[in-house]
Protein backbone atom coordinates (compact mmCIF):
# COMPACT_ATOMS: atom_id res chain seq x y z
CA UNK A 1 0.00 0.00 0.00
CA UNK A 2 2.84 2.41 0.78
CA UNK A 3 4.42 1.79 -2.62
CA UNK A 4 1.05 2.12 -4.35
CA UNK A 5 0.10 5.41 -2.68
CA UNK A 6 3.45 7.18 -2.64
CA UNK A 7 5.40 5.48 -5.42
CA UNK A 8 2.79 4.76 -8.10
CA UNK A 9 -0.20 7.05 -7.55
CA UNK A 10 1.77 10.29 -8.12
CA UNK A 11 2.77 9.14 -11.61
CA UNK A 12 -0.76 7.97 -12.38
CA UNK A 13 -1.92 11.44 -11.31
CA UNK A 14 0.64 13.12 -13.57
CA UNK A 15 -0.30 10.87 -16.51
CA UNK A 16 -3.99 11.68 -16.09
CA UNK A 17 -3.16 15.38 -15.89
CA UNK A 18 -1.03 15.44 -19.04
CA UNK A 19 -3.35 13.16 -21.04
CA UNK A 20 -6.37 15.18 -19.94
CA UNK A 21 -4.78 18.51 -20.87
CA UNK A 22 -3.82 17.20 -24.33
CA UNK A 23 -7.31 15.84 -24.87
CA UNK A 24 -8.93 19.02 -23.61
CA UNK A 25 -6.78 21.20 -25.84
CA UNK A 26 -7.45 19.11 -28.94
CA UNK A 27 -11.12 18.78 -28.13
CA UNK A 28 -12.02 22.42 -27.51
CA UNK A 29 -8.81 24.36 -26.93
CA UNK A 30 -9.93 24.92 -23.32
CA UNK A 31 -12.74 26.96 -24.78
CA UNK A 32 -15.32 25.18 -22.69
CA UNK A 33 -13.09 24.79 -19.64
CA UNK A 34 -15.10 27.18 -17.51
CA UNK A 35 -18.53 26.83 -19.06
CA UNK A 36 -20.25 30.11 -18.44
CA UNK A 37 -23.34 29.91 -16.32
CA UNK A 38 -25.99 32.58 -16.65
CA UNK A 39 -24.88 35.91 -15.23
CA UNK A 40 -27.33 35.99 -12.37
CA UNK A 41 -26.87 36.76 -8.71
CA UNK A 42 -24.05 39.12 -9.65
CA UNK A 43 -23.80 40.62 -6.17
CA UNK A 44 -23.10 37.22 -4.65
CA UNK A 45 -20.78 36.32 -7.52
CA UNK A 46 -18.79 39.52 -7.03
CA UNK A 47 -17.93 38.30 -3.54
CA UNK A 48 -17.65 34.54 -4.10
CA UNK A 49 -15.54 34.57 -7.25
CA UNK A 50 -12.70 36.85 -5.98
CA UNK A 51 -12.68 35.05 -2.63
CA UNK A 52 -12.27 31.69 -4.32
CA UNK A 53 -9.75 32.74 -6.98
CA UNK A 54 -7.50 34.82 -4.74
CA UNK A 55 -7.73 32.27 -1.96
CA UNK A 56 -6.84 29.32 -4.17
CA UNK A 57 -3.99 31.30 -5.70
CA UNK A 58 -2.40 31.89 -2.29
CA UNK A 59 -3.01 28.23 -1.37
CA UNK A 60 -1.25 27.10 -4.54
CA UNK A 61 1.71 29.43 -4.06
CA UNK A 62 2.07 28.32 -0.44
CA UNK A 63 2.17 24.67 -1.46
CA UNK A 64 4.72 25.29 -4.20
CA UNK A 65 6.99 27.15 -1.79
CA UNK A 66 6.57 24.63 1.01
CA UNK A 67 7.20 21.56 -1.13
CA UNK A 68 9.72 22.70 -3.70
CA UNK A 69 11.77 25.44 -2.02
CA UNK A 70 14.44 23.77 0.16
CA UNK A 71 14.68 24.84 3.76
CA UNK A 72 18.29 25.87 3.22
CA UNK A 73 17.08 28.58 0.85
CA UNK A 74 14.72 30.15 3.37
CA UNK A 75 17.39 29.82 6.07
CA UNK A 76 19.75 31.78 3.84
CA UNK A 77 17.12 34.54 3.69
CA UNK A 78 17.05 34.68 7.49
CA UNK A 79 13.70 32.89 7.87
CA UNK A 80 14.13 30.30 10.61
CA UNK A 81 11.87 27.29 11.15
CA UNK A 82 9.63 28.97 13.71
CA UNK A 83 9.11 32.09 11.62
CA UNK A 84 8.36 29.98 8.57
CA UNK A 85 5.87 27.95 10.60
CA UNK A 86 4.05 31.09 11.72
CA UNK A 87 3.81 32.37 8.15
CA UNK A 88 2.58 28.99 7.03
CA UNK A 89 0.13 28.63 9.90
CA UNK A 90 -1.53 32.03 9.78
CA UNK A 91 -1.15 32.73 6.08
CA UNK A 92 -2.11 29.23 4.98
CA UNK A 93 -5.06 29.05 7.35
CA UNK A 94 -6.36 32.45 6.25
CA UNK A 95 -6.03 31.51 2.56
CA UNK A 96 -7.76 28.20 3.20
CA UNK A 97 -10.65 29.83 5.09
CA UNK A 98 -11.14 32.44 2.33
CA UNK A 99 -11.10 29.73 -0.32
CA UNK A 100 -13.60 27.58 1.56
CA UNK A 101 -15.87 30.59 2.04
CA UNK A 102 -15.69 31.31 -1.69
CA UNK A 103 -16.50 27.69 -2.55
CA UNK A 104 -19.48 27.61 -0.19
CA UNK A 105 -20.85 30.84 -1.66
CA UNK A 106 -20.41 29.51 -5.20
CA UNK A 107 -22.16 26.26 -4.25
CA UNK A 108 -24.95 28.23 -2.58
CA UNK A 109 -25.41 30.26 -5.76
CA UNK A 110 -25.61 27.11 -7.85
CA UNK A 111 -28.11 25.50 -5.51
CA UNK A 112 -30.43 28.50 -5.22
CA UNK A 113 -30.44 29.81 -8.81
CA UNK A 114 -32.39 27.55 -11.17
CA UNK A 115 -30.63 28.50 -14.45
CA UNK A 116 -27.21 28.13 -12.81
CA UNK A 117 -28.24 24.81 -11.28
CA UNK A 118 -29.28 23.52 -14.71
CA UNK A 119 -25.82 24.44 -16.03
CA UNK A 120 -24.15 22.41 -13.26
CA UNK A 121 -22.82 19.02 -14.34
CA UNK A 122 -21.88 15.90 -12.41
CA UNK A 123 -18.17 16.57 -12.71
CA UNK A 124 -18.76 20.07 -11.29
CA UNK A 125 -20.21 18.47 -8.17
CA UNK A 126 -17.30 16.01 -7.90
CA UNK A 127 -14.80 18.83 -8.37
CA UNK A 128 -16.36 20.96 -5.65
CA UNK A 129 -16.49 18.00 -3.25
CA UNK A 130 -12.86 16.98 -3.77
CA UNK A 131 -11.59 20.56 -3.72
CA UNK A 132 -13.49 21.38 -0.54
CA UNK A 133 -12.34 18.16 1.15
CA UNK A 134 -8.69 18.75 0.20
CA UNK A 135 -8.62 22.31 1.54
CA UNK A 136 -10.53 21.52 4.72
CA UNK A 137 -8.24 18.57 5.40
CA UNK A 138 -5.20 20.76 4.81
CA UNK A 139 -6.41 23.42 7.26
CA UNK A 140 -7.25 20.71 9.81
CA UNK A 141 -3.80 19.16 9.43
CA UNK A 142 -2.11 22.53 9.91
CA UNK A 143 -4.18 23.45 12.97
CA UNK A 144 -3.62 20.03 14.54
CA UNK A 145 0.10 20.84 14.75
CA UNK A 146 -0.09 24.55 15.52
CA UNK A 147 2.09 24.65 18.61
CA UNK A 148 5.86 25.13 18.59
CA UNK A 149 7.35 24.80 15.14
CA UNK A 150 4.45 22.67 13.94
CA UNK A 151 4.85 19.49 11.96
CA UNK A 152 8.04 19.66 9.90
CA UNK A 153 6.67 18.47 6.57
CA UNK A 154 9.70 20.02 4.91
CA UNK A 155 11.67 17.07 6.27
CA UNK A 156 9.27 14.44 4.88
CA UNK A 157 6.63 15.45 2.35
CA UNK A 158 8.80 18.10 0.71
CA UNK A 159 11.82 15.87 -0.08
CA UNK A 160 9.42 13.08 -1.10
CA UNK A 161 7.75 15.47 -3.56
CA UNK A 162 11.10 16.46 -5.03
CA UNK A 163 12.21 12.83 -5.25
CA UNK A 164 9.34 12.15 -7.65
CA UNK A 165 11.14 14.16 -10.31
CA UNK A 166 14.15 11.82 -10.09
CA UNK A 167 11.84 8.85 -10.88
CA UNK A 168 13.06 7.30 -7.62
CA UNK A 169 10.40 8.26 -5.05
CA UNK A 170 11.61 7.95 -1.48
CA UNK A 171 8.48 6.35 -0.02
CA UNK A 172 10.18 5.72 3.33
CA UNK A 173 9.89 9.43 4.11
CA UNK A 174 6.11 9.06 4.42
CA UNK A 175 6.30 6.51 7.24
CA UNK A 176 6.07 9.07 10.05
CA UNK A 177 3.77 11.59 8.35
CA UNK A 178 0.59 12.27 10.38
CA UNK A 179 -2.60 10.75 8.97
CA UNK A 180 -4.24 14.13 8.29
CA UNK A 181 -1.30 15.19 6.14
CA UNK A 182 -1.40 11.86 4.28
CA UNK A 183 -5.12 12.18 3.57
CA UNK A 184 -4.63 15.79 2.46
CA UNK A 185 -1.87 14.69 0.07
CA UNK A 186 -3.97 11.91 -1.46
CA UNK A 187 -6.89 14.30 -1.94
CA UNK A 188 -4.50 16.78 -3.50
CA UNK A 189 -3.36 14.19 -6.03
CA UNK A 190 -6.98 13.33 -6.81
CA UNK A 191 -7.70 17.01 -7.39
CA UNK A 192 -4.72 17.38 -9.74
CA UNK A 193 -5.92 14.38 -11.75
CA UNK A 194 -9.40 15.92 -12.04
CA UNK A 195 -8.23 19.33 -13.25
CA UNK A 196 -8.40 18.72 -17.03
CA UNK A 197 -11.84 17.15 -16.81
CA UNK A 198 -13.52 19.94 -14.85
CA UNK A 199 -13.92 23.70 -15.05
CA UNK A 200 -10.61 24.02 -13.16
CA UNK A 201 -8.92 23.50 -16.53
CA UNK A 202 -9.50 27.17 -17.29
CA UNK A 203 -6.40 27.96 -15.23
CA UNK A 204 -4.46 26.82 -18.29
CA UNK A 205 -6.36 29.15 -20.59
CA UNK A 206 -6.00 32.31 -18.53
CA UNK A 207 -5.82 35.33 -20.87
CA UNK A 208 -2.17 36.13 -20.11
CA UNK A 209 -1.63 37.55 -23.61
CA UNK A 210 -4.29 40.15 -22.89
CA UNK A 211 -1.82 41.87 -20.57
CA UNK A 212 0.63 42.38 -23.42
CA UNK A 213 -1.73 43.10 -26.32
CA UNK A 214 -1.41 46.41 -28.20
CA UNK A 215 -3.88 49.16 -27.54
CA UNK A 216 -7.13 49.04 -29.46
CA UNK A 217 -8.00 52.40 -31.05
CA UNK A 218 -11.67 53.10 -31.64
CA UNK A 219 -12.62 55.65 -34.30
CA UNK A 220 -16.01 57.05 -35.10
CA UNK A 221 -17.49 56.17 -38.47
CA UNK A 222 -19.01 59.65 -38.76
CA UNK A 223 -16.72 62.05 -40.65
CA UNK A 224 -15.94 65.26 -38.79
CA UNK A 225 -13.65 68.19 -39.28
CA UNK A 226 -10.46 68.78 -37.32
CA UNK A 227 -11.22 70.23 -33.90
CA UNK A 228 -14.94 69.54 -34.20
CA UNK A 229 -16.45 67.73 -31.23
CA UNK A 230 -18.68 64.79 -32.08
CA UNK A 231 -22.39 65.40 -31.59
CA UNK A 232 -24.09 63.49 -28.86
CA UNK A 233 -26.96 61.39 -30.02
CA UNK A 234 -30.26 62.08 -28.37
CA UNK A 235 -32.21 59.27 -26.74
CA UNK A 236 -34.70 59.49 -29.59
CA UNK A 237 -32.00 58.86 -32.21
CA UNK A 238 -30.68 55.99 -30.17
CA UNK A 239 -34.05 54.38 -30.05
CA UNK A 240 -34.47 55.12 -26.35
From TrEMBL:
Heme b binds at residues 53, 63, 184, 202. Gene3D superfamilies: Transmembrane di-heme cytochromes, Chain C. Its cofactor is heme b; Mo-bis(molybdopterin guanine dinucleotide). Keywords: Cell membrane, Electron transport, Heme, Iron, Membrane, Metal-binding, Nitrate assimilation, Oxidoreductase, Transmembrane, Transmembrane helix, Transport. It is a multi-pass membrane protein. It is found in: Cell membrane. Residues 3-221 form the NarG-like domain. GO terms for biological process: anaerobic electron transport chain; nitrate assimilation. One of its GO terms (molecular function) is heme binding. The chain crosses the membrane at residues 6-23, 44-69, 89-107, 128-147, 173-195. The keyword Cell division does not apply. GO terms for cellular component: nitrate reductase complex; plasma membrane. It comes from the Bacteria. Does not seem to have nitrate reductase activity. In the central section; belongs to the NarJ/NarW family. In the N-terminal section; belongs to the nitrate reductase alpha subunit family. PANTHER family: NITRATE REDUCTASE PRIVATE CHAPERONE, REDOX ENZYME MATURATION PROTEIN REMP FAMILY, RESPIRATORY NITRATE REDUCTASE 1 GAMMA CHAIN. This is Nitrate reductase-like protein NarX.
Amino acid sequence: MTTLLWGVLPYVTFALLVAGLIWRHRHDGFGLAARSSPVRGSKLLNIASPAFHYGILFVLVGHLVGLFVPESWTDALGVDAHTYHLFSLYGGTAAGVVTVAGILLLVHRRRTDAPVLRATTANDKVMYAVLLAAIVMGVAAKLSHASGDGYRYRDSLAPWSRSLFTLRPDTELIAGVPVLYQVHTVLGMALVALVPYTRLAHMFSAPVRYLFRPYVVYRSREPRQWGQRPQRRSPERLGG
